[in-house]
Amino acid sequence: MTGHMLKLLTIGGVALLAGCSGTSTYSTFTHEAGALVGGGGFGNSIMNNTQIMNGEKSYVIGMSHRFSEEVTSTVNFAFNSSQLDAGARATLAQQANWIRQFPEVRFRVYGHTDAVGSSGYNKALGLRRANAVVRYLSSQGISRSRLEAVVSFGETQPLVVTEGKERRNRRTVTEVSGFVDGHPTVMDGKYAQIVYRGYVDSAKVPSTLTGISDSVTTSGE
Q1: Where is the OmpA-like domain (predicted)?
Q2: At 188, is the pLDDT very low, low, confident or very high (cuts 50, 70, 90)?
């Protein structure tokens, strides 16, 4: 074996060992519950590519931004409770009114808790909160097939980092997750009419015609 070849093999071996010795850091603050299994990336590449190619990805992102800008996406809970108070019900009624405008859109509800209590208990509590929101939205005329209460984040994504009781951490968040499979208005080349129909309707000028005599009169100040 020549000296040149030996040198190349040695460099390659060192690089391989250096790559194997590296460690990855998993942050529970930026991943869904369970994402640690398999690195959280299983199937994501295919899903993302499919959504981008058929145009769904950009629409989902756009609808997500619009939902969070036009309605309050978060409701809060009392300590160790999954009961919806009057404020939560008012917010969810607002969400339901928005959701009813878009029968082709699906939603996920994520549950959260504060850091008081065990991890297992808090995950279960977060999921109960998410299910409570889904049940309420269903009672407002939203099809249950369009709503999903996912495995909760539990205590792992606080808005306020504290070990104590914190109401802002005891919450659910409603988000756009995709589109109803096979819905006749989805991906038919006219989807802008759905996304922007509210804006189109708001631009219509109401008639000011009040009567016809010898001349046309209009209302005004």
Answers
A1: 63-180
A2: low
Q: What's this model's pTM, rounded to 2 decimal places?
A: 0.58
Max CA pair span of the chain: 109
Residue 9 three-state SS: helix
Asked if residue 89 lies in contact with residue 136, where contact means CB atoms within 8 angstroms, the answer is yes
CATH number of 67-201: 3.30.1330.60
Q: Where are the beta strands (DSSP E) in 115-190?
A: 147-149, 171-179
Please, which pLDDT band fits residue 166 given cuts at 50, 70 and 90? confident
Q: What is the SS3 string spanning 51-97?
A: HHHCCHHHHHHHHHHHHHHHCCCEEECCCCCCCCCHHHHHHHHHHHH
Neighbouring-strand partners of residue 107:
147, 176
CA 175 to chain centre: 3
pLDDT on residue 207: 66
Residues with Cβ within 8 Å of residue 33, at least 6 apart in sequence = 123, 150, 151, 152, 153, 154, 156
